[in-house]
Amino acid sequence: LDLDGTTLNTKHVISEGNKKAIRELVARGVGVAIATGRSMSGIYDHLKALKLPKSIPVLCLNGALCLKAGSDGKTVSTSMVFTDPVSKENADGVVELAKEHNFLVQFYIGDKVYAVPKSEKHMELMKRYEVLAGYPQIKLKDFDELKKLGDPAKILLLTEDPDSLLEMAKKKFGDTLHLVRGSPDPFFVEFLAKGVCKGTGLLKLCEAENIDPKSIVAFGDGDNDMEFLQYAGMGCAMKNARQVTKDKADVVLEWSNDEDGVGRQLERLTKEGSL
User: Fold this and answer.
1) 17: closest CA among 53, 58, 51, 50?
2) Distance of CA 116 to the CA centre of its chain
3) Mean pLDDT for the chain?
4) Mean pLDDT of 41-69
5) Residues 258-269, buried b or exposed e (16+ Cβ, 10 A)?
6) Residue 184: band (very low, low, confident or very high) from pLDDT cuts 50, 70, 90
């Protein structure tokens, strides 16, 4: 299950209808996993809200990090499955691009997000991202302090013009990094290690859990969900998904994320005997 634009509604919460459908699946012994571009710190509240009886896999940072996570409704426990960080050379290159064009930089390391704001506009972008993701970023004074933290699982550059940034990044890095235009409200571009995406993360998770990817039903809405929906046995795009994502899906739902689209499709598949 993707989160933003999919399992979460436009108020950035899981509806009661979706919670009910997910809990019923887990009670029947059907495996459930989360796959998101968010860091773990942006997932904790949703795990608490679901309050499932056992830990579930969480593919975060668009597949760069996978953990098993569970919650009793108050606290969250996690254990590592795998990680695939951006190399130091490429991380340095992204920072140089940000310096040159005055982009706000975020490094994702562990369950923390670090940012180096250099202007009031950067502070506004940080606040905007906090509203979207539901968690604050740790402010650092300079890029040297940022680089000392180690190799990030994911880097974000935040800007009002993500499409122009995406073209710049393609020219600078070629195919040495995996680039993702932010969604559902695009004001950033994600930089991941080459080959890292939700799709490859799903395949790694299936290998670790000894699961056939063709037995997976996946739900998504954004650009970062395209490979994810393709690699699953049934890829379901939300009614509110971008057209490029719908084009890669097996099924396009008649419901949006504000209409319990995930829950309704799960109930439909259950009645059909597909789950």
Assistant:
1) 50
2) 21
3) 92
4) 91
5) ebbbbbbbbbeb
6) low
Q: Name which of 39, 62, 102, 40 is nearest 191 in CA terms.
A: 62
**Does residue 184 have a cis peptide bond before it, meaning omega lies within 30 degrees of 0?**
yes
DSSP 185-248: S--EEEEEETT-SHHHHHHHHHHHHT--GGG-EEEE-SGGGHHHHHHSSEEEE-TTS-HHHHTT
Q: Could you report the per-residue pLDDT of 145-183, keeping only the tens digit for each?
A: 988 888 899 999 999 999 999 999 999 999 999 998 877
Only one residue has tokens 């982009």, namely 103
Is the predicted pLDDT of residue 227 greater than 70, yes or no? yes
CB atoms < 10 A from the CB of 42, how many?
24
The three-class DSSP label of residue 122 is: helix
At residue 110's C-alpha, the angle toward residues 71 and 75, to 5°, is 20
Phi, psi (rounded to 5 degrees) for 274: -85, -15
Strand ranges for the chain from DSSP E: 34-35, 56-60, 65-71, 76-83, 104-109, 112-115, 138-139, 154-158, 177-181, 188-193, 217-220, 234-237, 251-252
> Could you tell me if 69 and 55 are in contact, meaning their C-beta atoms sit under 8 angstroms apart?
yes
Q: How far apart are CA 41 and CA 25, in angstroms?
A: 25
Segment 75-127, tens digit of pLDDT: 778 888 898 999 999 999 999 999 999 999 999 987 789 999 999 999 999 99
Q: Which tokens is 116 given? A: 């180096």
Average pLDDT score over residue span 229-246:
96
